[in-house]
Each structure stands twice: as C-alpha cells, then as structure tokens.
Amino acid sequence: MTRANSPQLERLQTPAGHAISARLFRTDAYSPRGVCILAPATGVAQYLYDDLAHWLSGHGFHVVTFDYQGIGLSLEGNIRDCRADVLSWANQDCPTLLRWVATQFPSLERTWIGHSVGGHLLGMMPDSHLIDRAITVAAGTGTWWLNAWPTKRIVWFLWFVLVPLLVPLYGYFPGKRIGIMCDLPKGVIKQWRHWCLHRHYAPQAEGEWLWQRFAQVKQPITALAFSDDEMMSKASIDALHGFFSGSEVTRIEISPAQIGKKRIGHIGWHRRGYEALWQHYLLPLLPAAGDLHVTPAAQA
C-alpha cells in the first residue's frame, strides 16, 4: 500500500487539564469499514505504529494513534514534572480519545487494538462501552514471576534494584540512559512496579472497583499472542484475560514460522515487514469489506 495521506494531528484536552496528542489516518475508501484505535505499549511512541496505520487505512479503515500523557508527542515540559500514572492514562487519556473518536465517527464501528498495556487499559478505563470490539496483542499481566524466561531475571532486577535506586535520583525512570525501555514518568513506573509485585496484578493491588471495571467490559475480545514473545508468557496472557469475566475471549497464538519470519517478539509486529501477520490474523478480525472501493492512490 502506498502512503497517500499524511496523518491529521489533534490535541485533545482532558478533564484533568492536560492535553494528549493523537493522529488520524483517514482512509480513501468511499465507504469506510470502521475505525481502528491503536493503543500503544508502555513507552512506545505512536509514530512506531505508522506502518500498520497506513496499511489499515489502505484497507478501508480510519486509524487513530495516540500517545499517553508523558510519552512522545503528549509530553509537555520536563518529564520530571509529569504527574501521569497508568490509572490517569485509563481514567483521563483513553476516555478523552474515545469520546473524540465517537464524535468524529458516530456511525462507524470502533475497534480497540491494544498492544501490551494498551490491552490492560481496555479493562481499566470507564468508557469501554464506546468500542464495538477489542483485539489485544502481546498483552499479559506484569506480575514479575509470570514473565517469560529469561526476561524474568531482568524484570526482577528492574523492580527490586533499578527502579528503587534510579527514580528517586532522577525524578523519573531514565530508560533511554540505561537502555531499558524509554523514559517514563515516575508515577507510571512506580505504579506499574507496585502492581507487578502482586500475584493478581493491578486488580489485587487496587481493590474491588478495578475487578468490577474489568468485568464491565462486555465486547468480544480476541487475544493475539506470539510464541516467541520474550516478555509475555502464556500464563501471564491467560491471567490478564481472565480479568475480563464479562467478555467472550478468543485466544490465538502465532509463531514466526506461520508468517514466514524468524522472529516476532514483543515489540515490532506493527512495523513494515509483518504484513503477512496483519493480512492473515488481524484483518479477518475487523469489520468485513462489503462493497469496498478505494481511490487509485490508496491501492497497492
């Protein structure tokens, strides 16, 4: 697919007073098939999903990408001053984005595609009723002893050594400096660590209200997992999706060989080169094409 259009940048004001940055990739289809919302993994900037966004746009979907507060284009000022945590992403950023999408495209079906923490936020946000279906990708709990091996050793060192040492010293998590993830606001990394030290992750740490919020998600969920994911084990993926007690969850595991690749892993499936994965495993989960017509500029 060629990249016919540049994305439209939007600054969306949240009720908490901060703004988040989102981009809209409009399809050239005469009859759009729906809207796909790409909810990123922790610390993965929205531009890293551009290849997938353009591809989906070329297949008849409007696509929205965004950055959580404190990440990428949604970082305002110095990261040391950012007050975001994961629950503020769920309670402020995600609902603001969903309401904007619902206003822009009230008649189109909306699909939430949540990568890693983007799948967690599906169950944490209050406005999940504004989506029609959800697809989680490489999403499992962060409970450290459920992490895939050998990442489990690194995660143990992260939670018990690096975060307690570095966050008070720097005022944020200096991921870029030490080569682990990216820079994260202190509220995000501290809350994430707190959850990951509980067997039942965030719902156990936060209490009954969060169990209930996960249970309130009624839309069908398809969980895509990768057999060589270095972060998420099958146990962690099953644990997360077990929280969605009100949803019908379908689990699909994909191996690199099934798409003609040597590796998929936790990060990278959304970049160019993974079109076979998108074509054979993602596209069939989205609204059917029906009588789809696209302009020549959007065709392969």
UniProtKB/TrEMBL annotation:
Transmembrane ranges, per UniProt, are 154-173
Looking at the keywords, is Hydrolase present? yes
Per the record, the domain of life is Bacteria
Q: Which SUPFAM superfamilies match?
A: alpha/beta-Hydrolases
Q: What InterPro entries is this protein classified in?
A: AB_hydrolase_fold, Hydrolase_4, UCP037442_abhydr
State a single Gene Ontology molecular function. Answer: aminopeptidase activity
Which Pfam family is one of those matched by this entry?
Answer: Hydrolase_4
Protein name (record): Serine aminopeptidase domain-containing protein
* All copies of domain Serine aminopeptidase S33, residue ranges: 31-145
Q: Which UniProt keywords apply?
A: Aminopeptidase, Hydrolase, Membrane, Protease, Transmembrane, Transmembrane helix
